[in-house]
Structures are given as C-alpha cells and as structure tokens.
DNA sequence: CGAACCCTTGATACGCTTCAACAAGAGTGG
DNA sequence: CCACTCTTGTTGAAGCGTATCAAGGGTTCG
C-alpha cells in the first residue's frame, strides 16, 4: 500500500550521535560476522563459509531504503554493518522508527519464510552493507546442516521473546515506566560502584522516544523528571545513572 | 519473580461466551492435530506420528495454570484443545489477558529454544489438553526430518509477524482504530452482501479489550459509538457489520 | 553568517483510565 | 419457584497522562 516509489532519496540522512569509536573499524571489515548475527556460541567455520557462499551482499547509501513495506520478501535480510531504522514511513517521507539495528544483526529473518511482503520499511541511517540469503538456496543448506537450522530457530525465538515483552510493556506500562525499563536494560555496571552505571545513547533521543511509543517532548520531560529526582544525570548523549536501585524500582511498577 | 505459588486453584474459572458448537466435538478428539498447529499445508503422516511419539500429553482443569511466568521452559508447549489465556497474573490473582488461544495452537514455541523462563503466565479457561515436546528429543527429531524444522521456522516466523504488527498498532493507533482493525480482521464475508459481515465473539468482551490494550469500559463505549454511527450492530456476543467499507476505513487511519 | 537539525520548555487539548453505580443474566440453595 | 450471589457489561463523572501546538536555544554545517 505504500511501496509506490522506486528508489528515491529520502532527503538528507538525519544527524546521528557520535559513534563509540569501535564501529568505524567494523565498517571497514567486509565479511559477515555470523556469530554476532546468530547470537549464542560461535558457529563453526564451515557453517560460516556456507552462509557466505549463499549471501548476496550489496551496499546502501545513507538515507536510502534497504527494503520497503509491501515489497515481497524473497530473502532473509542481514545487516552486515551500519545503522538501519525499521518502521513505517509516513506519506510525508517522515519515518516513525519502531526499531533501530546497528552492527551485525538480522533486519528481517521472518517475512521470507511466510512468502509475504515485508511489514516494515527499512531505511539506512548511515552507509550500510546488507547481506541477503535467498530462501530456496537456504532451505537446501539447512537440509545439509541441521545445526544451522537450529541456530535460525533460536534467532527467531529471541525475536519472539523481544516482541512479546515489548508488546506487554506497551499495553500495561506507562511512559515513565517504559523509559526507566529501557534505561535499566542497557545499564553497563560500573565495577567500583554497584549502584551506579552509565548509558551511552547511540541514537537520537527522538528515535528512542519513537521506539518507546512516546513523543520526543514527553521523553525530554521524563528525563528531566528523573534527573530532578536525582536518579540520573544527563549530559548530551551520556546518561549517568546515580541510583540504579531506584531506576530498577521505577522500571518494575 | 512471580512464580512463588505452586499449583493452587486460581479461584473459579471465568464465564465464557457460548461455544460455537463445533468445539465440543473437537474436545472429544484426543489426538494432536499437528496440521492446524503448524499451519500451512498438511504435514506428512510420518511427521505427525514422530511428533506424537515425542509429545507428552497432560490435562489441565479450568482455572489451573498451564505454565507460569518465571518457570524455566524446557519444552515446547502445544494447546491440543480447550481455551487458554496468556498474560501476566497480578498479585491479586487477577489475570490481564494479552493473548487468548483456543483449539489446536502453539502456547509457547520459543522460550524453550532460549533455555530461559516463560515470559507469560498461561491459565486454562476451560478443561484443556496440552502436549509438550522436550527440547532435547525434538532436536534429535529435527536432525532426522529437516522438513519439520522448516515447519517450525515458519511457525515462529508467523508469530514474529503477528507480534510486529501488534506492537505497531499499540504504538501508533488509538483505541477506536485498534478496535476497528480487530473487528475488520475477523469479519466473515457474507456471500450475498459484500458490504456486510458477521463477527462472532468467542471471548468475553473484557478479554478482547485486554488484548487490545484498553479498558473494558472504553471498549464498551467504542462499540456504542460504532453502532450509533450505523457501522455495526451489537447483540450480545454477535456483532453484525453493516458497513464493512466504513469499518475498514476506520481501521486504516 | 544563515540554515537546518535537534532538543527543550511551556500552555493547552483531549483520549483514556479510574471510580462508582446499576442493569441483566446465570448459577445456587432454600 | 424465588431470593440471593456472582459475573459481566454498560453508563456517567472526574481526573490523570500524553499528544499537540508553539516558541526558543544550542549545535553543526555549508
């Protein structure tokens, strides 16, 4: 219903928070890191080579679509490197981000199995490298290598759990709770101080708000409230958690 | 965090709308109908027998939990017959239904693959028969029968798509739109009248509201609004759609 | 410098929940 | 059979939470 445009530029790509440094190195690396895509224990070298043989790799410029909602999915899509926003593009070219993937990760591992169209639009935020696995060839590979099929099952199971929790939070948690939960989820524990932590925001705050199902204004106010309460301290894209216990308590309710 | 109670009765099971008739027959049938669980084309007879050999079947009385949030999942859980509510049980024994399965269907096909706990509580609404597939044995079976693994992949892919759409609607659609979308989704087309349809509610309205992420009062008001507009006509658990086109329009926005 | 982008803050509107009361139907026991 | 209870659905009034609209400041980039 919205896949009319072919491959036009979606205006200039949005500004992105400063990279964490390690990512520039990753971008230079051309091979697909299947271990990180599949998750769990590192796959065997033979499996990786078999997948590499199947994968058809292409580059997408920043601001360009990787795939569009409504387009028939014939391949499993992997993001090799770069950042991609998944969501539904409105008529004005505006994108409401529902998920943001970066580094090696699945972009759509499910639509192809159903033989249906993609449910979301995917737009590159940075220059991006994408690998695609044709469904037919992949099925043949899975017959030879059952271990790979199991890895794929686990990947989808992870996705199901993520989405189940997400849907639950959207239904039954209010905006402050969702934000606290989101922050608590990506706290990096500090060795010396068990009640403190740091969260580096790798995306624009408005994108985070979009993923949490709230307006950027609302999120800004909630961040202000949290820092007024002394729970966090915000400085640009760095959030210092001053009272991790309190944050977890807010995330629970 | 909430799996303290062992297997206590959750008070009396809630009242359920009148069955559609065909279901009583289904309950008498003891075998697992794998075709309906897996979806798509009917699986081979050999596959079905292999699954039956693996399945450990048990009965659960109405009102009793099938599994609990927080309990380690070691098996894939299939609902053979009966109705089960999936959601999160509050401290007061009250259940906020997030999904309601009936007839042959998966209850949880993902948690076991992750080796983690169930994310939701499952409580039988009617007398229920459940089949469980131990993960270890199933993996052995999948090595022998790759076709089964593919069927499982497709099942999980279907679940991913369902949840993706659901999360999208919760984020970006308001309550009237979600209700219209829900109704339009389960319209049975009437042969003679292309713009009319009938929806038989198989669940309590409050359960439908819960699945749509709104309060029962809100849903009641919205149903009233729709019938005031002449879009639908409500009589108990029967909803007659008088203007299918209008309903679809309301569901889109 | 101006332009574009992003975040923030304030004022206001509105959707939905909450609380409370009531009607209708189903099951129960005298 | 009727009185009684329990459950569900409906309706009303009030309040909270979040979206919306509008404006301003900080930063980056051409």
Characterization of this structure:
2 copies of one chain form a homodimer. Chain A has helices at 22-28, 34-38, 45-54, 111-114, 135-144, 146-172, 175-185, 205-211, 216-228, 244-252, and strands spanning 56-60, 65-67, 75-81, 83-89, 95-102, 105-108, 121-124, 128-134, 188-189, 197-200, 232-235, 238-241. Chain A has 253 residues and is of the alpha+beta class. Chain A has a 4-stranded antiparallel beta sheet. A 4-stranded antiparallel beta sheet of chain A has the order 2-7-4-5. Chain A has a 4-stranded antiparallel beta sheet with strand order 9-10-12-11. In chain A, strand 9 (188-189) and strand 10 (197-200) form a beta hairpin. In chain A, helix 5 (135-144) crosses helix 6 and helix 7 (175-185) crosses helix 10 (244-252). Chain A is globular, with a radius of gyration of 19 Å. The interface between A and B is large, with 36 and 36 residues. Chain A binds a DNA duplex (30 and 30 nucleotides) through helix 9.
Task: Identify the most extensive interface between protein chains.
Answer: A-B, 36 and 36 residues
Percent strand of chain A equals 15-25%
**What class do helices, strands and sheet pairing of chain A give?**
alpha+beta
Strand order of the largest sheet of chain A: 1-8-3-6
For this structure, the quaternary state is: homodimer
Brief descriptors of the model:
253 residues; disordered N terminus; homodimer; four-stranded antiparallel β-sheet; 23% strand; DNA-binding; alpha+beta
